[in-house]
Specification:
The chain is α+β, with helices and mostly antiparallel strands and 329 residues long. It contains nine helices and 13 strands. The strands form two sheets. Strands 1, 2, 3, 4, 5, 6, 7 and 13 form an eight-stranded mixed beta sheet that branches. Strands 9-10-8-12-11 form a five-stranded antiparallel beta sheet, with helices on both faces. β9 and β10 form a beta hairpin. α1 runs parallel beside α2, α1 packs across α3 and α2 crosses α3. The longest helix has 20 residues.
């Protein structure tokens, strides 16, 4: 099933540079659906893709062995198993190669922004342009999804990130295997979020206590959301879901209350990220409430990241990613 459209892949073109982007992803609620096949495994549920994501630049050269050097925001990464798996599978088709991959993002890993999925997918798409341009984005998405599932860093993010937007994942599995439906969303809405604490995805999707809560609460949330697929009900069901799962602690609750007092309607928290929708014409007022004396430039292009020295918050303000992941040269 994976790489069905792969025929003959190119040898590395020395010095060739390509770029790719994958959006961040905030899951509102979900059910875990595991199978013997990593391509069939995944989750069902709903989420939103952020315009803020991960951009990867790859420089590829011929080598006598496969070698990946990964830098994130200028810092060398010693271990990135999910990205390494994507690299190894693609390099096997067009290698051996030496790859220098430079990634940049305002999103912090291990909080709940699906940075691992965005990193793996954008790396795969950028490499695919050089090593195997015959591969479709869907096939590369399958490689990234498989790596996420096998390393327990994510279950449904890659499919969402490849599609972008406000999505309902109706059937589990990799891109082209699972079922995903894009939902309408007002263009006037932006997402305000704040990373509060880290929480390992592996623990959340393997610990039996969490898995039982996730599947029970996820089933309830999906059923309620199917009756009203609005952005407002998405946030309500997300809050109920994550409160029921039990990850929300005092630190997250404090930030949720700050968001509520600033006028963010029904904020929620995915793992360690507090987030909510805000109308664009209300954004300046909300930010001034969250950050005293902050002067937000109305015409400033989103996304932006702001550090709040008063409340100790880092705020990410982002539109919703409409087009999903893509690559270019």
């Amino acid at each position: 099933m994976v790489l069905a459209d792969a025929t003959v892949c190119n040898e590395a073109q020395s010095g060739r540079t390509c770029w790719a982007y994958a959006p961040g992803h905030l899951t509102g609620f979900f059910e875990i659906r595991m199978s013997d096949s990593s391509l069939l495994s995944g989750s069902i549920g709903a989420g939103i893709c952020l315009k803020e994501g991960v951009v990867t630049e790859t420089s590829v050269s011929s080598s006598d062995r496969n070698e990946l050097s990964l830098l994130v925001n200028g810092s060398q990464i010693v271990s990135a198993p999910t990205c390494e798996s994507v690299f190894e599978e693609l390099a096997a088709l067009g290698g051996p190669v030496k790859v220098v991959a430079r990634q940049r993002s305002r999103l912090l890993p291990n909080f709940g922004y699906a940075v691992s999925g965005a990193s793996a997918l954008s790396l795969g798409l950028a490499l695919g342009r050089t090593l195997c341009p015959e591969l479709s984005a869907q096939s590369i998405g399958q490689i990234a999804h498989k790596a996420e599932v096998e390393h327990l860093t994510g279950l449904g993010d890659v499919s969402a990130q490849l599609s972008g937007g406000f999505e309902l994942r109706e059937r589990p599995g990799a891109p082209g295997v699972g079922g995903i439906r894009l939902l309408p969303l007002r263009k006037s809405l932006v997402v305000v979020s704040s990373p509060v604490l880290t929480f390992p995805t592996k623990t959340m999707i393997t610990d039996n206590v969490f898995v039982k809560k996730i599947n029970a609460r996820g089933k309830e949330a999906i059923a309620s959301f199917l009756r009203d697929q609005s952005a407002e009900n998405f946030m309500v069901q997300s809050r109920l879901f994550w409160e029921g799962v039990g990850i929300i602690n005092e630190d997250i609750l404090r930030v949720l209350k700050l968001f509520e007092s600033a006028g963010v309607a029904s904020p929620s928290a995915k793992k360690g990220v507090v987030f909510g929708f805000v109308e664009k014409d209300e954004l300046k007022r909300v930010l001034r409430s969250l950050i005293p004396r902050f002067d937000f430039l109305v015409g400033e292009e989103l996304p932006v990241a702001i550090n709040d020295p008063v409340n100790g918050l880092r705020l990410i303000i982002s539109e919703v990613s409409k087009g999903g992941a893509r690559a270019w040269e």
